[in-house]
TrEMBL record:
Mg(2+) binds at D9, E58. Its main location: cytoplasm. Belongs to the P-Pant transferase superfamily. AcpS family. This is Holo-[acyl-carrier-protein] synthase. It comes from Rubritalea tangerina. It catalyses: apo-[ACP] + CoA = holo-[ACP] + adenosine 3',5'-bisphosphate + H(+).
Amino acid sequence: MQVFGIGIDVVEIDRIEESIEKFGDKFLDRIFTPTERAYCDAQKRPHVNYAARFAVKEAVSKAFGTGIGKELSWLDMTILRAASGEPRVELSGAGKDFAESHKIVQIKISLTHAKLYAAANAIALSES
């Protein structure tokens, strides 16, 4: 395998919390899948988990070199958590099509959050 691209993103947690308060479901439905919403809403501080997932999606879009748009939308990515705690990305729609057409076979992600910020990085790996 070889590195197709890398991405990183940092998000102010307050910014995500304010968007949730101001726009509610309209914001959440545009950015997060039902699976992500169920996970985040079950957490003690949902806005922190939403912020981390927002950062991961931005990092993946940077690793793809596309940004969020025609080739990769917010809802083409679902950020999941394995029983071990390891985060992973599941692609669908145009995002899955893009990955397949560019022979991206794996996306490694890492996310973190502190009091004020959430951050994530992503490495897209393709067949050599």
